[in-house]
């Protein structure tokens, strides 16, 4: 079975938006705290790379930021466009691929949240992506990444997470699973999968995302990649969306969050 280029679940932005809404405000607080602590003074231009249903982009737009979002999924982009129009928010969106970004402009803060960064499958792709993003940032601009890292070496590529969210008559149950037999220890890739179980007005629907190929990036490796890019300095790493709490083995969650600042001349 070949992995698909993008999960089928991303063709259902409304369900994604509900299923993933749980920590959005706190994540946006973190992004704002990064800008205040380390970003260009008064910086308000933000770029959401792999914006999905626009949960961060639209929340930041409501808080007065000028938002631009890109995503590979046309369904997600259309959903965000309609939401922004409905709520008269300053957000522009475009279909784009994080492997070779075509978006232009200058931003004070870029971010790539909830595992999207791991769609950069090769070291060359990661380095090229970092350099491209740095080119889109104002002097001193920030880039915040957030992706899964294993907490135990013996569960690498063999983890399962599930949660659910309900609004009115709709419940979305999200399953994130990894397929250990697909692990390629040399390329450091494996296949993972999202499944949505949706209950709406008493009807149940299962949406299987299909397998997608993703990259494993370990913390020490990420530090070396950032340094090797010559484009960014790594300011801090976290296991939760709390700027004052640095990454340590105790706080490390399934999401490793890193704050990068554009190097002078980067
Ligand atoms: C797990 S979602 C994260 C969305 C959003 N960042 C969030 O935090 O909710 C991953 C998103 O990445 C997008 N995506 C997958 N591959 C991509 C690529 N190569 N370039 C741009 N977006 C991609 C998917 O369409 C999906 O919307």
**Overall mean confidence score, pLDDT:** 95
**Which CATH top level class of the largest domain fits?**
Alpha Beta
- Helix/strand order, N-terminal first: HHEHEHEEHEEEEEHEE
Number of strands: 11
| Distance between the amino and carboxyl termini | 41 Å
What is the level-2 CATH architecture name of the largest domain? 3-Layer(aba) Sandwich
The biggest sheet, with number of strands, parallel, antiparallel or mixed sense and barrel status, is:
7 strands, mixed
Beta-strand residue fraction: 35-45%
Structural category: alpha/beta
Which short descriptors sum up this protein?
alpha/beta, 266 residues, 25% helix, 2 domains, binds S-adenosylmethionine, Rossmann fold, 6 helices
Overview of the structural elements:
With 266 residues, the chain is of the alpha/beta class. It folds into two domains: 8-150 and 216-262, Vaccinia Virus protein VP39 (Rossmann fold), CATH 3.40.50.150; 153-214. The chain contains six helices and eleven strands. Strands 3-2-1-4-5-11-10 form a seven-stranded mixed β-sheet, with helices on both faces. Helix 2 crosses helix 3 and helix 5 packs across helix 6 (219-229). The N and C termini lie far apart (41 Å). The model has no long low-confidence stretch (mean pLDDT 95). It binds S-adenosylmethionine (SAM).
């Amino acid at each position: 079975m070949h992995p698909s280029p993008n999960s089928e679940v991303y063709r259902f932005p409304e369900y994604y938006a509900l299923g993933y809404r749980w920590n959005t405000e706190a994540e946006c607080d973190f992004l704002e705290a990064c800008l205040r602590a380390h970003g260009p003074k008064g910086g308000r231009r933000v770029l959401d790379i792999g914006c999905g249903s626009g949960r961060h982009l639209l929340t930041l737009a409501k808080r007065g930021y000028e938002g631009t979002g890109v995503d590979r999924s046309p369904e997600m982009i259309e959903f965000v466009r309609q939401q922004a129009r409905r709520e008269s928010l300053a957000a522009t969106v475009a279909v784009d691929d994080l492997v070779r970004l075509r978006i232009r402009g200058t931003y004070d803060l870029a971010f790539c949240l909830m595992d999207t960064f791991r769609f950069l499958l090769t070291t060359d792709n990661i380095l090229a992506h970092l350099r491209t993003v740095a080119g889109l940032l104002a002097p001193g601009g920030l880039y915040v990444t957030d992706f899964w890292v294993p907490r135990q070496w013996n569960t690498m590529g063999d983890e399962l997470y599930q949660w659910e969210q309900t609004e009115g008559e709709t419940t979305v149950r999200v399953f994130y699973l990894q397929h250990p037999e697909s692990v390629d220890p040399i390329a450091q890739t494996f296949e993972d999968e999202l499944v949505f179980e949706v209950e709406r007005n008493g009807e149940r629907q299962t949406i299987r995302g299909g397998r997608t190929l993703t990259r494993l990036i370990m913390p020490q490796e990420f530090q070396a990649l950032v340094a090797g890019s010559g484009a960014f300095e790594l300011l801090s790493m976290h296991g939760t969306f709390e700027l004052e709490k640095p990454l340590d083995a105790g706080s490390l969650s399934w999401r490793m969050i890193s704050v990068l600042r554009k190097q002078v001349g980067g």
